[in-house]
Each structure stands twice: as C-alpha cells, then as structure tokens.
Amino acid sequence: MIAVVRRGASEQQIDNLVAWFHSRGLKTNISKGDIQTIIGLIGDTSKVDIDLLEGLEIVESVKRITEPFKSVNRKFHPEDTVVDIGGIKIGGGNFQMIAGPCSVESSEQILSVAESVKASGACLLRGGAFKPRTSPYDFQGLRAEGIELLLEAKAKTGMPIVTEIMSAAHLHLFEKVDVIQVGARNMQNFEMLKELGRSKKPILLKRGFCSTLQELLMSAEYIMAEGNPNIILCERGIRTFETFTRNTLDLSAVPVLKELSHLPIIIDPSHAIGVSRYVKPMALAAVASGADGLIVEVHNDPKNAVCDGAQSLTPEQFDDLAGRVRRIREVITNEQ
Ligand code: PEP
Ligand code: MN
Predict the structure, then answer these.
(1) Ligand 1: which of 181, 266, 273, 295 to mutate, most ligand atoms within 8 Å of CB?
(2) How far is CA 65 from the centre of its chain?
(3) How far is CA 17 from CA 60, 145, 278, 291, 325, in A?
(4) Which end of the chain has less neighbouring CB within 10 Å, N or C?
C-alpha cells in the first residue's frame, strides 16, 4: 500500500503519520521526490482503514499495491534508484561499464586486464574468485586468494571490484569487496539474500536462467526487505530451445524492469551469448535499449583462459566496443 502525501505537508506531519504506521506494526519506506512524497507501507496492511487514511488532511490518496514485490516496486519509489559505489554511480541516467575476466587466475593476469579495461573506460573491475561450475572437477576459482588478488589490482588501479559470493558463510571474506555479485545459480538462495540484505554493500543480482522477471524482482525484494536498497539487477540470458547461443538474451527485460522497478538494470552479454564474436552487437543493442550498464568478460589471453574463454573479449576488442558504446550513449543522452 502507498500513501501519497499532499504537497506542502510539514516534516512534523509526515513524521507523525509515519509514527502512526509504525504503531500499527507496519514498516515504512519514504520516497521524497521533487514533485511528490510517497510513504510505502510494508507488512499486513489489511487492517489499515483506507477511508480513515484518505480522510487525513495530509494524505492526498491511498493505493493498494497488487504486485507481490513492494519495496522494489516503482509505485513505492517513482524516481530511479542510483547505486553509489564509492562515487561511481549506476542508475538514474548514470551508465557504467564493468569488465574483467571470468575468473581471477593470477596476479599478473588480473592486473593486466584491469589496466587495459580501465584505459578503455571501464569503471569497475569484475573477476570471479568463487566460481559456480557445473562440474565439480572443473576449476573452482582461487577463492579467498582470488579476492586478495582483486584487492591488489584495486589498490594499483583504483578500480572498485565486483565478485561473486556463493555462500553466506563466506561473507567475512567480502568485507573490502565493493560490489557483491549474486550469480544466476544463487538468485533464489533466499537465506543468502536475507544475509546480504542485512549488509549495506551494493549487490549485483543476476537473473536465474530459468527465472521470470517477477521472480528476479522477488529476489531483489528479499534483499531490500532486510534494509539494503543498493541493488543492481542484471539480465544475463535465459535458457530457451535455441542451441547456437549459450543462452538467449532477453533484452525486453530492460524496458519491462524499468517500468516495474526503480532499481538500475545492467546487461551481461557475455554469459547471455557465450560466443565472443556475438558479444559486441548484443552489447550495443543493450546500450540502445536503455540499460544502465554492461558487465563484459575480458581476458588478456582468451584461448588459454581457465574459464569462459570462448565468450571473452580481448582487451583490444573491448576497447573497440567501449568506443562504440560511448557513441550510442551520446545519442541516447542527447535525446533525453
Ligand atoms: C559470472 O559472472 O562469472 C557468472 C558465473 O555469471 P552467471 O551467474 O550469470 O552465470
Ligand atoms: Mn563467466
């Protein structure tokens, strides 16, 4: 349920109304926009008397939210959420490129990729330390050592780092990580989502490859319901009957999620397509669709990568892509 506050209401009146909601066991989410202030109500709103609320002097209107996702719903928070990663902003017109290898392999590898993608305009460095592999016999990542190597690359380049968590029990290892990624396979690891909701770290939440957009938003709701609003949604391809590509990139996720939610949405063309020569056209299409960013796999030597070499761009290919992305962004920004 949301209560739209009448223009000109004083802070004191809003505080009193919020206190009244709290006294009824409801949680509130206040969204102060340039035009409207909206109080979102979370909890059992069935006992709230809508007529009584609408009769209050400071309340303009009251609406029930029928969707099961509440805090992440744009009706709760009409303005775009801007996630701030140490001054690097994503969302609300701020576009960012995240790039780096699938897996951290060595100090030399991660530093070399970090330096080259930074020079091409990427603002955040990705790299997997804990790798979710289909086979238990495949490389599982350098784990804690991988995070140390990412932090070393961060110290040398100044780039904030993004890396995947696979278990809430590892959270202590992520203290200095700037953005925690929840991978497609863990999108519905609800206990982990709750734990991440209690941390204040920005979370990059990837869509499960068999999940609907509503299920993605419900997973984001788990994080936000625990108090963490710093969520970036990521479409990374879904499983369809097509076999020429690793997954099918569902670009319709961008306009649909932007309408349904205030959270930023970025695209991972690498895992969506799985073939490096298809990454560029789909990355450009993603930018044109209005996505708030890209996360792209880049490797200094894709042929010898321990993981996902077939979909990784070389630093030169990424540089070419980044230049084209900037040109499309210029067109989009000038049109707004
Ligand atoms: C990754 O980003 O390295 C990864 C494993 O992604 P996903 O969870 O989308 O498969
Ligand atoms: Mn990968």
Answers:
(1) 181
(2) 23
(3) 13, 50, 53, 37, 46
(4) C
Q: Three-state SS for 275?
A: coil
Ligand nearest to the CA of 308: 2
Ligand 1 nearest-atom number relative to CA 237: 9
> Which candidate, 34, 44, 45, 33, places its Cα nearest to that of 76?
33
**Taking ligand 2, which is a single-atom ion, which protein residues have CB atoms under 5 Å away?**
102, 308
Q: What pLDDT, on the 0 to 100 scale, is given for residue 266?
A: 98
- Distance CA(43)–CA(22), nearest Å, equals 10
CB distance 204 to 186 below 8 Å: no
Under a CB-based contact definition with an 8 Å cutoff, are residues 170 and 132 in contact? Answer: no
pLDDT of residue 174: 98
- Give ligand 1 pocket residues (Cβ under 6 A): 102, 128, 132, 183-185, 206, 236, 268, 271
The CATH number of the domain covering residues in 2-63: 3.30.70.1140
Q: What is the pLDDT of residues 41-84, one digit of tens each?
A: 988 888 788 999 999 999 999 999 999 999 999 999 999 999 99
Structure tokens at 190: 């609800």
Domain ranges in the chain with CATH number 3.20.20.70: 83-335
CATH 3.40.720.10 holds for 83-335: no
Distance between CA 172 and CA 205 in Å, rounded?
Answer: 19
Per-residue model confidence (pLDDT) at position 203: 98
Residue owning the nearest CA to atom 9 of ligand 1: 184
Q: Is the pTM of this model over 0.90?
A: yes
